[in-house]
Structure prediction request, 483 residues.
Amino acid sequence: MKTRILYSLLFILITSVFLNLFSACDADTEVDKTVEEILAAQPTIVSVSPESADILTNVTISGTYLNFADKAFIGDVECQITQRINGSTLQIEVAPQASTGIVKIITSAGKEAVSPSELTVTYPTPNVTSTFPSSATVNENITLEGNNLESITRISFGDMDGIIQFQEDQALVVSVPNNENSPVEVNYYYNSSSGEVTEQLSSSFNILIPTPIISNWPSLMSRDNEVTIVGTDMNLITDVSVGGEDVTLNTASATSVSFNVPSGVATGYQDIVINYGTAGEITQADVPYINGQFESYIEFDSYSEDVFVIDFTKDPLATQQLNGTVEQPPFPGTSYYNLNMNTGTGSTIARMRLHNETVNDTWPNMIDAGNFGNNPVLHFWMNTEGTEPIFKIYIGGTSSANRRQLSGSDTNTGNGWQLFAVRLNGFIPSISSVGSTFEFRFNTGSGATDFPIKVNIDWIIVTDSVLTEFGAIDVTDQFGSAG
Prediction:
């Protein structure tokens, strides 16, 4: 038994040694090639099939080392390599500018191979059978019908080419360019054995220049935020200015343009002027612009009324909704918050924990040193419809030491909207950071008798200055002391 085990072990050992020796010998006899040596192989072209081909059709090249082909030519015209099937087969597309000639490929290592004979390039003649219209507007699509339309290389409208949107053998769609030199001659072009051929589609085509239609003007602009204007035929716009200063367009398309307001434009109501064509002009007057650091926290076009939590144990008759009976604030948007309080109490009736509700996560840094130029200013629109609610702001905590209150005639805005401003640095003297709390609270006061007491509020933001340009009033000093 021991003898068998020993013989088995000896057999395994000898086999292992033999395999290692074989591998070593194999490594000596098989000389590995570098990538450069492999790529440097000399390709050959044995045949090209078919020997005659229309432009824009594929031909098959047969030979050796064709998988390393980097470029392909017919004569001096480069053609697209459409498929590398394997090392001996390659397909290329006959370019529309190609003419009869030798087929050549060049590898990435610079090696060249040429065909043994010329490829005969043929040129199908396009035939347009549909009637071309007498006029169309800029950007309108025109459909041509006929045969061999894939051979058309371009369509000109006077001195400008239309954009070919779709093209196949029996149909072609081209969009009308913005050429104001109307009427213009319209021609299509294709290649032949003798060069480019021109055929007329219209001798006097009228290009109609429409007026861009703006569907969405900005309701507010600010220094650090891109402005986008949405509409139709926006690619007809030649330039845009804000506050009399020309802007640089970031993007421009048929449906929108975007830009940043130039640095020299001042905070205030500014006109946006759009020029199009040679003399067309569209103006949107008095668009508010803030040239400074600006953060938006609650704007009721984007938030529902339930960001304010109602305590019905304090006021079972309280109601809240988006929009009440007053008009929207001057800007921005189309929705605001409305609260009606109907019970006299000294406790909070409606509370908004801004720190829980806003999706803008910069609020903890409002009063940090250096932020907002060390002058963060809270702003909000308020309309109390001639009533006098009690308004409290909590910053950094919910104790009385973190609270300041505005009440009485200081909250009475009459029957209009007022933009309130509150300077936040030192507003709560005991803190240097917002921490985890930023709250608005409303109540009526326990002595209130004239109900309902109303609050309409919108656009809770912070900037680096009091927006006096929009009529903001600084009520910081009208707030009671903290505590």
Notes: The mean pLDDT is 91.
